[in-house]
Amino acid sequence: MTETAYLAAAVIVSALVTWALRALPFLFLRRLRHSPVLQEIGAALPVGVMTVLVLHTVHEVPPLDPARSIPVLVGLVATAGLHLWRGNALLSIGVGTGLHVLLASTLPGVLA
């Protein structure tokens, strides 16, 4: 087998495996759509995921370093406040991230 044929076969096999692994959950989901357990998981999972993301964001932020802690705090408060006010995840995450980036870029220069 030539190197080109070997690479083509590897790409095709990888693509088929990737497609199959992405399609497989939908086969099970069709059967479990009306399951009370799946509905309970669907209701609780977003809160759990957001909690993990927030904890991961703040776990290494030094609270006594205002150049690093203030942008994180403002970003989190803006994200939560906008989401409670408007209920739009895309808007709240976008504005919170933008505020964090803006403050993280400018605040160290101001505080120095």
Tally of DSSP helical segments = 4
Q: Please give the share of residues in helix.
A: over 70%
> What sequence of helices (H) and strands (E) makes up the elements?
HHHH
* Rg result: 22 Å
How many structural domains?
A: 2
**Class computed from helices, strands and strand pairing:** mainly alpha
For the secondary structure, the number of strands is 0
Task: List the uncertain runs.
Answer: none
Instruction: Estimate what percentage of residues fall within beta strands.
Output: under 5%
Distance between the termini: 63 Å
Sheet having the most strands? none
What number is the mean pLDDT?
88
The backbone outline, from C-alpha atoms, is flat
Written account of the structure:
- Helix 3 runs antiparallel to helix 4.
- The longest helix is centred in the first third of the chain and has 30 residues, at 3-32.
- The N and C termini lie far apart (63 Å).
- It is built from four helices and no strands.
- The chain has two domains: 1-33; 36-111, no CATH class.
- With 112 residues, it is mainly α.
- It has helices at residues 3-32, 36-58, 66-86, 89-111.
List keywords for this structure.
4 helices, Branched-chain amino acid transport protein, flat, transmembrane helix, 2 domains, mainly alpha, membrane, 112 residues
In short:
The chain has 112 residues and is mainly α.
